[in-house]
Structure formats: structure tokens, C-alpha cells
Amino acid sequence: MPMAQRPRRNRRTESLRSLVRESRVHPNHFILPLFVTEGKNQKTPIRSMPGVNRLSRDLIIKEAKRAISLGIGSVALFPVIAESLKDTLASASTHADGLLQRTIADLKNAYPELTVITDVAMDPYSTDGHDGLVQDGKILNDETLPILAAMALAQARAGADIVAPSDMMDGRVGYLRRALDAQGFTQVGILAYTAKYASSFYGPFREALDSAPKHGDKKTYQMDPSNRREALTEAELDVSEGADMIMVKPALAYLDVISALRSHVHVPIAAYHVSGEYAMIKAAGQMGWLDADAAMLESLVSIRRAGADAILTYAAMEMAEKIHG
Ligand code: PBG
Prior knowledge:
Blueprint: H1 14-19, E1 30-37, E2 43-45, E3 53-56, H2 57-69, E4 74-79, H3 99-110, E5 115-120, E6 133-135, E7 138-140, H4 145-158, E8 162-165, H5 172-182, E9 189-196, H6 203-209, H7 229-241, E10 245-249, H8 255-264, E11 269-273, H9 275-286, H10 292-306, E12 310-313, H11 316-324
Parallel strand pairs: 1-3, 1-4, 1-12, 4-5, 5-8, 8-9, 9-10, 10-11, 11-12
Antiparallel strand pairs: 2-3, 6-7
The structure holds ligand PBG.
């Protein structure tokens, strides 16, 4: 049958398909999240995140080495803080010899080229399990900012390349930028969790860090999943306050938000393929209900297609291995 357009012609062979492929995932795009725990040679699996472990510092170094060899140049660190060190002010987050600070220093000593990204939020250190300071059940905004700044400075002093405020307090990007600059850390970047939604997909992560809120939820600071325009407002603010990169989180249920931000701002966009998104695919794979590797790669490429530059994913290592074949 004569037909001017036959889209299948470009799909005939793998070489043709790869010639016209519009989006690609490369290990260089990945940021590997790592859970750090005290001790030596400690590797404790996270029940709801198959294949992901809490690792002691010595093993983190080994994991980073493997990541680098696979072409992954960036890691995001999340410390597991002992309950006895938590308090209402997240004081442990500013200690020069704290777990996170020691890990940053170790990594930068071993691999100066590695990009080390650190989370700025109170929750892993807080007895309340909230990202900001709690008073009478309310999360205080402006009172939280100096705590976040002290935390970011401790991370910068330890050698962090990029600090990533994940707390969603208003004005925190500008506040952190000024605090970093005032102390001479003009080269430390800010990756703002710009559109971070109050999502149920963070469950496994909170299990990993034992950081679930002790009361209430995070809806007065994290965004309402129903909103898209509000993400543009957040992005305009973060960029004007000095964010070097912005983030959308979670990723898969928010591809439209990634796409909207891509067409509105010019800074690089990262997307966080979060713990629950990872867990769902892994669980279905374990049940034999789908091919987990293929589904994972398809999910990651969809995040790139939506417009993300970088992807934080717990599947970074295994997908990098698969991509390299
Ligand atoms: C902490 C933080 C969270 C995640 C990253 N940083 C949890 C939360 O906000 O409750 C979630 C990451 C994931 O689920 O993979 N502020």
C-alpha cells in the first residue's frame, strides 16, 4: 500500500533506532544517594529498598570507587543518626566531627574529583523528625534558617561541593547563599529541592534513616501534589535567590512538573527518583510481575525525556552496569 509516512521505517533495526533516539540515560547523569552509618565494615540492608544498604564510612569509600569506575561522578549523602544524638535543634548536624562531616572529608580525600552533595534539612537529626524547628506543633520558618545555615557551613567546611536544602522553608536558598559567601565558600553550589512534594513515596527512605515525623505530616512546608504552577513560583524564587541547580521530587508522578520547569528556567534540573518509586519496581520484579531492570531503565529515560539533566536514583550502580553492558 503506498504511504508517504511510515514511522516504522525508522524503527526497523537497532542501529536505526539508536540513530533517531531523542533521549538517553548515561551514568554521567546519575547522582548516587548513599546512606552512611557509624562503625566499620557495617552493611545493613534496608528492608523496603532491596539492594540498598546503610554503609559505614570505609564501605562508602569502596562504593564511591565502584561508582566512579562506572562513570558516576556524583553522590548524595544521607547520615543515619543515633537516636541518642538527636535533639529538637538538630545540634549534631553542625559538629565538625559528626558522621556526615567525617564522611565528606574521607570521600574528598580519596576522590577529589567526586562531586559530593549533602542534604540540608533537620529531619535526620531531629527528635521531631521534621525538616524545620518545631514549636507547639508548628514548623517555624525564619527560626529554622540559621540552623540550616550552620548545617550547610559545617558541610562546606568538611569539603562538600554542593549543599542541597531539602527542607522547603521559604527564603532558605538566599539565606544559605549569603551564609556560604560570608564565610568564603563562594564556590560551594546550591542544589535546591525546589518542587518537593508532600509525597507518600518517601516511606522507604524514612525507614532507612528512621526519620519519620513523630507527629503530624509535612504538608505545611512540602508542596501539595495537586499543584503545578506553584512549582514555577518556587523555581523563580530559588533561581533569583541563587540556586545553581533546582530539583523536582519525586520524579515519575511529577514528569509534567519537570517539563514545565524545563521550559521556564535555564538552570540545570535534577529529578529525584525517590525511594518509593525504586521500591515499587523492585517489589514487582521480585514477584515476577515485570522485568525490573527494563522497567527501571524505562523510568529513568522518561525522566530525561521530561527534561531533567541529572537523576538521583538508588538504581544508579546497577543501571550504569547495564548501560555499559
Ligand atoms: C529529608 C529528605 C527526604 C528525602 C530526601 N531528603 C524525606 C522527607 O522529606 O521526608 C526522600 C528521599 C527518598 O524518598 O528517596 N528532608
